Amino acid sequence: MYIEQLKNNKDSLLKYLPFSLAFFIFMAFNLIASSLAETNTQEALDLMVEQMGKNMTLVMVTAPLAFLLLLLLLWVRFFHGQSIRSLTTARPKTDWKRILFSFALWSLFLIISTGISYYINPSDYEINFKPVPFIFLIIISIIFVPLQTSFEEYFFRGYLMQGLGLATKTRWFPLVFTSVMFGLIHVSNPEVLQLGPSIMIFYIGTGFFLGIITLMDDGMELALGFHAANNVMLSLLVTSKTSALQSEALLIDISDSSNSLTEIILQVFLIFPILLFIFAKKYGWNDWKRKLTQFN
Fold first, then answer.
1. pTM of the predicted model, to two decimals?
2. In 3D, which of 113, 66, 101, 67 has the Cα closest to residue 234?
3. Which of 70, 140, 164, 233 could bridge across to 110 with cysteines, CB 3.0–4.6 Å?
4. What is the total count of domains within the chain?
C-alpha cells in the first residue's frame, strides 16, 4: 500500500517537519509580502511580462518549483534514506504507462473542450499564434512546467501524505489536510483576485481529486500525469491576463468571469467524478471506503 509500505521506517512526524515547515513559511512570507506590497500579484505579473516577455515570465514562475523538486527528492533520498520509487508508488517500479495514459486523457479533454468553447463563443477569444515564440513556448512547457507540477505532487500527494499517514495511522486525515493545503497555497494567484473566493472550490476540489486517485491507485502516477497535462495544455492552448501561467498560448481568453462559478462546479462535481469512473474501471479499483480512510 502506498502509505503503509513505509510503516516499518523509524521516521517520526518530527523528521517530516523541517522541509514542510520551511515550505509553508516560505509560502506565507510570499503571501504577506504581496499583501503589503504597493502592487498586487496581478500587477507584479504584468510588470514581469512587460519587462521580460511572456515566455521568460513562464520560466521565472516555474523555475523555483523545479528547483524545489530537486531539493525535495535529494532530501527524501539522503535525509530520510527513502527511495524515490517508494515516494512515487507502492508498485515495484514507477508505471510510466499510467502517467502517459492520465496525461493523454486529460490533454485530449482540454483540447476538445477548448475547441468546442472557441467554436461556440469565438468572441471570447483572441487568436495569438506567433510561430517563433510558440516554438519556444513548447520547449519551455515540456521542460519546466512538468517539473513545477511534479514538485506539487511529490510534496502534497507524496511527502506530506505519507508523513501524515504514518503519524496519524489514517488515510482520511492526510487526504483532507493535503487537499485543503493544496488549495490554500494558490490563494495569492491572480485568478483568485479576478474571480473571487469561489475559485478555491476548484483548487481544493482538484486537491481532493488528485489525493483520491493517489490513494485508490497506490501511487502518484495518475496524479503526476493529470497535473502535468493540465498545466502544459493550458500554457499552450489558452492564456489570459488573470492567469498565473502567462504564456504565448494559441488563444487569449478575453471573456468576463460571469460563468466561472458554473464552469468550476461542472469540472469539480461532474468532470472529476467521470474521470474517477474511467480510472476505476481501467485499473479495477474497489473497496473505496477502506482505501480512502483506513490505515492497514
1. 0.94
2. 113
3. 233
4. 1
Q: Is residue 6 part of a domain?
A: no
Within 8 A by CB and 6+ apart from 138, the residues are: 236
Measured in Å, how far apart are the chain's first and last C-alpha atoms?
Answer: 8
Q: Any idea which residue has 482540454 for its cell?
A: 110
Q: Does 229 map to a domain?
A: yes
Domain limits for position 69: 24-293
For residue 276, being part of any structural domain is answered with: yes
Is position 19 within any domain? no
pLDDT tens-digit map of 153-208: 999 999 999 999 998 999 999 999 999 999 999 887 877 777 778 889 999 999 99
